[in-house]
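Technical appendix A lists one of the benchmark inputs used to test multi-chain prediction within the project. The record comprises two sequence entries:
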Amino acid sequence: GEDVEQSLFLSVREGDSSVINCTYTDSSSTYLYWYKQEPGAGLQLLTYIFSNMDMKQDQRLTVLLNKKDKHLSLRIADTQTGDSAIYFCAETVAGGSYIPTFGRGTSLIVHP
Amino acid sequence: DSGVTQTPKHLITATGQRVTLRCSPRSGDLSVYWYQQSLDQGLQFLIQYYNGEERAKGNILERFSAQQFPDLHSELNLSSLELGDSALYFCASSAQGDNQPQHFGDGTRLSIL
């Protein structure tokens, strides 16, 4: 079955890099997504990667995918206080309904 | 702004009551998804509609129902409400085609007293 795991909290200092990790169990995943949720708001799509890619970079965001270890990470360079939010990892799998399975979210706290 | 509109933002009601949550998808999106987010369960998929037809069903209780109208807006009906139904309810929409990323509304916060 599908299962997506994330650590619950990450605390970093402003200006440092943040790395949020995610593991999944289904090897037939097709797309993997990162969403950001700020307080009182919905989930905002940050970026996504197709499963045949190893890396995707978009400005301060770098996504790394290790298919062998079923591990996905989101690196945020030069982390700012405005990056404080909950980050959700999600995957869709081939042959299914293409409804993403979401992790429980990682709460990123950025302190001065 | 995701382009997905949900109303109302907040809803406070009592046990046993019935409520209707409304969602307008992004312009051009045919798929609408409903999710429930609570502290203990995380983000749970409830149901998906595509162009007016039910496409996929998740962990949706029998007390809950949804529909998508010809203008593509959707409503989620929650009845015989229980304290445990207190949660954030999100609507998301996506473009035509499999694996299209979902775009979320800001949610409706439902509080049952």
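Chain B touches chain A at residues 2, 4, 6, 33, 42-43, 45, 48, 55-56, 58, 90, 92, 98-99, 101-107 (CB under 8 Å). The mean pLDDT of chain B is 94. Comparable benchmark entries are summarised in Table A2.
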